[in-house]
């Protein structure tokens, strides 16, 4: 009968990255610079892909979508985190918290699915080059991307509604810098969350494992095909077309696994902050660098774009 006396909270207190006042200004400046760099880097990638017809290929179409995702992804958490570092009020409304939770997992699951689509694109390019333009036509790429966004939208909607129905009355202090599943389920909900955890784990696990499985299988076939290439230069050239994607995939799944596959406790939440910072702040910043640092085609297009801007001015 105790459930009759439960009172739903109207807001949550986000403790943020650190509660040490002397570190907060330094962290604020650091992550503000990182966020600006994220926006500039990813917006430049989107602009280059759109403006240059030579980059109107499946690989760069997916890359443009990935950059767009990274802009939204970092913008879901970083601005609120920065506001908490400089302001005394570190609260977020109940609706605001679950809106943040929804968009964070919507964009995160969409990115996982998009990365699997990109791995399939690399598989077709390397293993079935003669049929590449048929199997990866514009319509197919558009459909794959739309499916990624749609599945991410529906999954996150179901997940957020399921968690929001819990009575949050244990406490309303989130020892995190944004609203995420682990602190909300384990540290806040005063009801039995076992069923919710199982449901979320099944839904999240099925989507995550499907995306991961497609990625792994694609690269298994890619490596098997590379082994058939006798010349070292030919093998190196073929591998260079997917090395950037492999790096992004390893970083993405590595940080996600560190955050969500471990046991949950007050201590583990603190450790999870580090991994969460990596895939919410650092990964969106590194992705455009990883894809462009050795990509001469993108370098050429960037120089061309900047020259146009100077002439226009």
Automatic annotation (TrEMBL):
Classification via PROSITE patterns: G_PROTEIN_RECEP_F1_1 (PS00237), G_PROTEIN_RECEP_F1_2 (PS50262)
Which InterPro entries does the protein's record reference?
GPCR_Rhodpsn (IPR000276), GPCR_Rhodpsn_7TM (IPR017452), Olfact_rcpt (IPR000725), Olfactory_GPCR (IPR050516)
SUPFAM superfamilies, sorted: Family A G protein-coupled receptor-like
Record's Gene Ontology CC terms? plasma membrane
Kindly list the places in or outside the cell where this protein is found, as annotated in its UniProt entry: Cell membrane
- Which CDD domains does UniProt cross-reference here? 7tmA_OR (cd13954)
How is this protein situated with respect to the membrane? Multi-pass membrane protein
Instruction: Alphabetically list the UniProt keywords.
Output: Cell membrane, G-protein coupled receptor, Membrane, Olfaction, Receptor, Sensory transduction, Transducer, Transmembrane, Transmembrane helix
MF-aspect GO terms: G protein-coupled receptor activity; olfactory receptor activity
Limits of the G-protein coupled receptors family 1 profile domain: 41-291
The record lists the membrane-crossing segments as: 26-48, 60-79, 91-114, 135-158, 202-226, 238-262, 274-293
Q: Which Gene3D superfamilies match?
A: Rhodopsin 7-helix transmembrane proteins
**UniProt superkingdom:** Eukaryota
Family the UniProt entry places it in: Belongs to the G-protein coupled receptor 1 family.
Name it. Answer: Olfactory receptor
- Its source organism is Leptobrachium leishanense (Leishan spiny toad)
Specify the taxonomic lineage. Answer: Eukaryota, Metazoa, Chordata, Craniata, Vertebrata
């Amino acid at each position: 009968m105790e459930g009759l006396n439960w009172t739903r909270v109207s807001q949550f207190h986000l403790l943020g990255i650190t509660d040490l006042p002397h570190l907060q200004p330094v962290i604020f400046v650091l992550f503000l610079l990182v966020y600006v760099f994220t926006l500039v880097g990813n917006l430049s990638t989107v602009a280059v892909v759109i403006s240059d017809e030579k980059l109107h290929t499946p690989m760069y179409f997916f890359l443009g979508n990935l950059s767009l995702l990274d802009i939204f992804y970092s913008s879901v958490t970083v601005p609120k985190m920065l506001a908490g570092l400089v302001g005394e009020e570190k609260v977020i409304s109940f609706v605001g918290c679950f809106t943040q939770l929804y968009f964070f997992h919507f964009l995160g699951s969409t990115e996982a699915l998009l990365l699997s689509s990109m791995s399939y694109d690399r598989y077709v390019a390397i293993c079935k080059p003669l049929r590449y333009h048929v199997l990866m036509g514009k319509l197919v790429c558009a459909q794959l991307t739309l499916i990624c966004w749609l599945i991410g939208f529906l999954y996150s909607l179901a997940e957020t509604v399921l968690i929001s129905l819990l009575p949050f009355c244990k406490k309303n202090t989130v020892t995190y810098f944004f609203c995420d599943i682990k602190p909300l389920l384990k540290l806040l909900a005063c009801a039995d969350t076992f069923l919710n955890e199982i449901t979320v784990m099944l839904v999240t696990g099925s989507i995550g494992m499907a995306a991961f499985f497609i990625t792994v299988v694609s690269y298994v076939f890619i490596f098997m095909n590379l082994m058939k290439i006798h010349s070292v230069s030919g093998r190196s050239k073929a591998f260079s077309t997917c090395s950037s994607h492999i790096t992004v995939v390893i970083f993405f799944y590595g940080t996600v696994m560190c955050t969500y596959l471990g046991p949950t406790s007050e201590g583990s939440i603190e450790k999870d902050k580090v991994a969460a910072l990596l895939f919410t702040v650092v990964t969106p910043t590194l992705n455009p660098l990883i894809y462009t640092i050795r990509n001469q085609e993108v370098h050429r297009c960037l120089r061309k774009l900047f020259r146009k801007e100077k002439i226009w001015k």
